[in-house]
Every structure is written in structure tokens, then in C-alpha cells.
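Exercise: predict the fold of this chain.
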Amino acid sequence: MRNPDPTVLPDPWYALHKLLSDMDAEIEQVYVERGINGVRPRFAYPLIRLAHTGPLTIRELAESLDRSHSAISQTIAAMRKEGLVTSEPGPDARTRRIELTERGRSLVPFLEAEWRATHATVAELDGEVPYAMTTVVEELRRALEQRPMRQRVLDHLVEPPQ
């Protein structure tokens, strides 16, 4: 039997990605309503971290946030464009030290308050649904520790005949 055409199959990730995107858009709307333009929710954690640590290289920031170097590098580029951070050459030619601008520093108290409000919102949502989002994520993580996603995909992978 031939596998169904993947272009007509529903995307199993769509609902989750859409939910996260919609939630981020609503948080960004809170920023806009407060007169904070050009700031995306993904900027909050790096800005808060830099406010508490002082300048860091992209690698140091990525490690401290448990994010990939690539993701933080892209985020920093977007933050630089919005005038939230600057970068200066680091200890060697391959590194750049990221530092908050005055605008970036001025937003940190609001972003910390928003961060706390978002955490309270997630806790509230966890209480409103039959399966707490945070519990589901942890249970999925434990299941994937027992049998990783890679192995699960390989177990279902049927190579097309050549």
C-alpha cells in the first residue's frame, strides 16, 4: 500500500504551533497597548537576563537561557534592530558581547511584571483544563526519555521504493 500524500495529511504540529503563536500575539498586544512597540515576547527573557547579569556573549546568553546559539543570535539581531541591545567585540574576534541599551534597560521592570503575570496566567489555565499544560509537557518529556522522538519516527518510517 502506498503512503498517503504528505501534502494532504493534516499537520500534527499545526494546532500546537498556532496556539503558541496566538498566545505570543496576545502578549505582544499587551505591549502595544502599553505603548511598547517593536518588542516581541521572545525578547523578554534575554532582556531580563542581561539586566541581571550585565553584558554576555551570545554563547553565554544562549547557555544561561538553555536556548540554541542560533536562536539567540537571531533574537539578538532582531533586538538590535529595535534598539534594545548593542554588541561590541568580545575577548576574541569570534565573539560579541551583548549589552542593553537605555531603551532595553527601561523596559525591564515592565517585562519582569509581564513575565510574572504570564506565569500566573499559565497556572490559571492549568487549573481550568482537565490536563494541565505543564503536566502534559512533563509527561511527554518523560515518555521521550524512555523512547526518544527519533526512535519513534524511525519505527514508523516507511521508505518509498526506489
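Check your answer against the key: The mean pLDDT is 92.
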